[in-house]
Design goal:
Elements: H1 3-26, H2 59-70, H3 72-76
Helix pairs in contact: 1-2
Length: 103
């Protein structure tokens, strides 16, 4: 992964972590289990198609969805702590198939 992509991923991950932390603070009980994720990039293939970054008017959301499009294998190996696995998601990449990660 190039340094610029790594930096963008770090920014997006930090923003997502802040949102998730805020959601957990407002919930009565936060689950303690680690949500599912793929152990390897190969296990996540074929990658789901993510929404086009241009779908979103906000530049930060465009950047997040561009990262998802550029490095799907990395996101597939990350658990999603909004616990959307209860709706069939299997890793952070799945949140970018629709507008779920946009809030």
């Amino acid at each position: 992964m190039s340094p610029s992509k790594a930096a963008l991923f770090a920014v997006a991950a930090a923003a997502l972590a802040a949102v998730v932390a805020a959601q957990h603070r407002t919930s009565q009980t936060a689950p303690s289990e680690i949500p599912p994720y793929y152990e390897t990039e190969a296990a996540a293939k074929p990658f789901p198609k993510t929404l086009a970054p241009e779908t979103f008017p906000h530049p930060l959301l465009q950047k997040v969805y561009r990262i998802a499009k550029d490095i799907p294998g990395v996101l597939a190996q990350q658990p999603c702590y909004c616990y959307c696995n209860r709706t069939g998601h299997k890793g952070l990449l799945d949140c970018h198939r629709d507008s779920h990660s946009a809030g």
